[in-house]
Design goal:
68% of the residues lie in helices and 0% in strands. The protein is mainly α. It has one domain (2-56). Transcriptional repressor that regulates multiple aspects of plant growth and development. Residues 1-49 form the OVATE domain. One of its GO terms (cellular component) is nucleus.
């Protein structure tokens, strides 16, 4: 998941939310239900990191 986001060069969660949401849904649909909690935790961690980095490095 991180590699997909990095390859897409995503830095603005709001602007790229549709892609991020679709990526999450894709990962959930491709993986067994017993892994969904891990996938969601990783996704949340990535979103928090993206939001934190955008707050530390605001675009001018």
């Amino acid at each position: 998941m991180r590699e997909m986001i990095k390859a897409r060069n995503i830095s603005d969660v709001k602007k790229d939310w549709e892609f991020l949401n679709e990526l999450l849904i894709c990962y959930l649909s491709l993986n067994p239900k017993n892994t969904h909690d891990i996938i969601i935790r990783v996704f949340a961690d990535i979103i928090v990191r993206l939001l934190s980095s955008s707050l530390c490095n605001p675009r001018i």
